[in-house]
Amino acid sequence: MPFDLRLYAIVDPEQARGRDLADLARRCVEGGATLVQLRDKRSSKGAFVEQARAIKSALAPHGAQLIINDRIDVVLDSGADGVHIGPDDITAEDTAACSVPVQSSACRSNRRPKPRQPLWP
User: Fold this and answer.
1) Are 35 and 55 within 8 A, CB to CB?
2) First-to-final CA distance of the chain
3) DSSP notation for the chain
4) Do the beta carbons of residue 12 and residue 40 sit within 8 Å?
């Protein structure tokens, strides 16, 4: 199933100011998000999987998809819909061995894309 990228939300405990991530993800979807990415660079695998399962459960009634930043193991253990990989992460080919759907923010290449100008100051 392809990812629905019309409105893509990212939830991250480092940016959530103590708010419950499952509730925050649910609110994003109620506001129109079609896909939620869980980004967590600090939690243990167990805590990450538990959080992913809670978010997946919160999104289920709305039909929104959940992807996990970088961690194929968390995708497989949590039942998330796929993994997000960036230009400096694992390759899409590596994820194919695990049969995990991939959402990539950039193709790997030796050239870096030019930074975009911010939409607001």
Assistant:
1) no
2) 37
3) -----SSEEEE-TTTTTT--HHHHHHHHHHTT-SEEEE--SSS-HHHHHHHHHHHHHHHGGGT-EEEEES-HHHHHHHT-SEEEE-TTS--HHHHHTTT--EEESS---SSPPPPPPPS--
4) yes
* d(C-alpha 104, C-alpha 91), whole Å: 9
pLDDT in tens, 92-108: 666 566 666 666 553 33
**What one-letter code names the amino acid at 56?**
K
Amino acid sitting at position 83: V
pTM for the complete prediction?
Answer: 0.78
Beta-bridge mates of residue 37: 10, 67
